[in-house]
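Worked Example 4.2. Consider the chain below.
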Amino acid sequence: MRTKSAKSVFRISPLPRRRVSEAVADDIRQAIFGGKLLPGNKLPSEREMAAQYHSSRVAIREALRALVNEGLIIVKRGYNGGACVSDFDNALRALRDSLMTVVKLGQAKSSHLSEVRNILEPEIAAIATVRATSSDLQAIEAIVMAQEEELKAGKLSRRYDMEFHRSAVDATHNPVLSIVVNAINDSLRESIFQSKLNNAMRTRVVTNHRNIFEALKSRNAEEAQKLMSQHVLAVQGHLETGKAKQEKSKNG
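Applying the procedure from the previous section yields the following structure tokens:
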């Protein structure tokens, strides 16, 4: 039995030549991912990198611009400026800005973001019942108590709403979940803050937060999951109702 030669089954195609800027960006990217460059570390100057990579400063600038767009580095101007490795907050901002751009371009709606919230946040609540430390629970309870005090004083404030969800996802101790969920919630912030609020609605939100906290504290994953899902759906229902009323008033 004749076997096929390697030449007949495997053809070598010319490898595409990468632009210098792409090679430089990938080298820096791999250094960040590999832990050789840590958050806050400052990169060499453009002039130094151009000499080290045997490239032009234009190519270095293009590489840095690509890494800035990915949220991996930030570039500071002025005295003591330059490029340095981003931290999680900058990664969060990059993802949030991308989501907000998609929403503003009309390619996604707040309902799409809420749909993702309803997929993730109930699971996050369940995970938090297992992983939350005493410090995590104290932080969440402090937010709920602050909301309850505002409600007693008659303040219809949304000041702590996002902080509650931020603290809940932080209690999972999963940085990827924190970045994704916080970016989604920040993208919804404008829609939530623009929606009308009354005492009954505010009471429901604060009560929901209290009940979710109690489920987290008692380590009841099923209850925390159910309550969080109900809460996210209620908020989305409120946003959709408010938007429908705005459209109706516009159309007269």
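The mean pLDDT is 84. The radius of gyration is 24 Å. Compare this with Example 4.1 before moving on.
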